[in-house]
Amino acid sequence: MSDVNPESKDDSNSNKTEGISFSERYSDVMGKVNESLNKIDWTQMGKYGKAAGIIAVVILAQVLIKIVIDTINFFPILPGLLELLGVVVLGQWSWQNLKTSERRTAVFEKVQNLKKEYLG
Questions:
Q1: What is the C-alpha separation between 43 and 77, in angstroms, rounded?
Q2: Per the structure, how many domains does the chain have?
Q3: Which domain covers residue 80, as residue numbers?
Q4: Which of these, 16, 45, 66, 86, could form a disulfide with 49 (CB 3.0-4.6 Å)?
């Protein structure tokens, strides 16, 4: 048995990572990702390579969004306040856009135009 405690090695590494803030680590990681993406010759990629890259970026974005949402949910009062804010914004929008028949008709026509434009 050696006298070196393996936990002491981990403590020195954890002290180094605790000194670095989240924003510094995030900017470092994003810098490395941007460097890697700049090295790729996108003109040589086929449509399948581009599709795989887009899918990978979407998955990464979803993971980051989940982390942010989980962090928000960690605080006990914040999710309730955000729900209340959503209800207030919805109520305010509804009051402004749905209180007269002309405005309701305009909203309905706008939705129909968007539906026709995107769905054909």
A1: 49
A2: 1
A3: 76-120
A4: 45
